[in-house]
Specification:
This protein is of the alpha/beta class and 291 residues long. The chain contains eleven helices and 13 strands. β9 and β10 form a beta hairpin. α3 crosses α4, α5 packs antiparallel against α6 and α9 packs across α10. It is globular. The two termini are 23 Å apart.
Amino acid sequence: MSVRIVTDSTADVPKKVREELSIQMVPLKVHFSEETYLDAVTIQSEEFYEKLIQAAKLPTTSQPSPIDFMETYKAILAESEETQIVSIHLSSAFSGTYQSAVLARNMMDELADRITIIDSKSASYGFGILVVAAAKAAEKGMQKDELIQFVEEMRQNRHLYFMVDTLDYLQKGGRIGKAAAVFGSLLNIKPILSIDEEGEVCSVDKVRGQKKAIGRIMEMIKQDLGSDEEISVFLAVTNEMANAEAIEKQFQANFKVHAISYTHIGPVIGTHVGPGTVGIFVVPCRYAEYL
């Protein structure tokens, strides 16, 4: 029995990695007025952030349909009668993407038993890590039940924070009120966000200035993991690297770092957090062979 991994575009797994590990990706959509793009297919991060900064109106996003998932599942399962699918998706608290995948599986009759859908309760490379790890575990021969347990264990041991550069996009997306956004911007407030066990965005702190925000993130990660354990770090960036490079220096100064890698926050997640955001994803080094 072989296990194939499916995900959606909000995992922000780079195309090269998806191709190397045979990960199938179903894209969400981004809508700029009358123009519709497939996330990470017909629009990439660089072009998206240029359009976002210039746009008079915030773009909207939409989930894949169950048919989109059905087509992907059928094509994979047609490869072999032994093939199983583990499909890992954006938190159901953020989007109907997970539900679309569940509906697709339920419409596939006798093939449904060969498909398992996982709600990552996360976003961006916060679950992209899990997708990559699952694909590498499958490549090493891990069977489906063990692989599902492995993904959940890793999710419990992965820590994530988002440092948001501007409050404007959270306000436009309805996450905070306009008065709070204006006041926060005047005071140079940098929100630090995370995602709770229910898969909901939560504010863990609000700090004045980038330097203090980075310092606070280092403090929280020490609380999460201690400073003695060797860690793997992934930094997800939007349209510029300055904030991420400052964060990398602090990791190197404060922790035993096995490796630091970069990826991009894609168009769908970028719509809601805006330019200048950095996603920080940390896992213990014992998972390094799967990353």
